[in-house]
Amino acid sequence: MSTLTDDFWAPRASFLAPIPELAIAADQLDQAADAVLRGDLETARALIKSCDMPSLSTYRALIVEGEKPEIQRYRPVPNAPERQRGTKARMPGKRAALEIFRRDGWRCRFCGICVLSLDAIKALDSLFPEEVRWRARPYRNRNVAFNVLASSLDHILPHSRGGDNDPSNLVAACGSCQFGRMQYTLEEVGFLDPRLRPPVVDRWDGLERLLRK
To answer: What are the angstrom distances between the C-alpha of 131 and each of 37, 62, 99, 183?
Structure first.
């Protein structure tokens, strides 16, 4: 019979189970994109404002604001790759990155939430700067839905541990899963390898359709 300790250290997909508000925000932004495309800017504006939910800020802060042993669950791994001091993270070009996001269905391969094209976010920000606030500093002053749903690429083997930019070492991620893992390997935070689960590819497009209007 498993003990609490066994359960705590068991392999997992992500730091935290996604909260329902993440799916609600993605759905509302999906509706907002459709409203923009049909010229109904006021409906789009209202939907974007409604996504700025305090619960999303709380969720994000638990993962990315400070290392928390009960969430990161870092454990030493024998013979893990050494951290390479002084290395600067390198990312693939825009075309290669786009291919990875499309391959992964514009979803975080760790927690599974829908993520947004950064260019689509910027397009919405140009239309609704007071509601999106993408250029706000500090970042916590942005509409939080865009903070938590913004797409990111994550190196399965971190660059600082010797990982490269081959597409096989890169997956689509949300910012929380990427920044929460920092320089740790999957094994060090107890993550299952997301590449062993097939990506979910359906009609969700990361709001890319806004860039084709």
So the answer is: 18, 24, 29, 33
CA 173 to chain centroid, in Å, comes to: 4
The domain locations on the chain are 4-71+91-200
The whole model's pTM is what? 0.93
Cβ count near 41 (within 10 Å): 13
pLDDT tens profile 155-210: 999 988 999 999 999 999 999 999 999 889 999 999 999 999 999 999 999 999 99
For residue 121, what is the enclosing H or E element? helix 118-127
Neighbours of 72 (CB within 10 A): 18
Spatial distance between the Cα atoms of 43 and 41, rounded to a whole number of angstroms: 5
Residue carrying the six token digits 């590449």: 195
What would the pLDDT profile of 61-101 be if each residue is shown by its tens digit?
999 999 899 999 999 999 999 888 766 667 889 999 999 99
Give the CA-trace dihedral at 166, 168, 170, 174, to 10 degrees. 160
Q: Which helix (H) or strand (E) holds 153?
A: strand 151-155
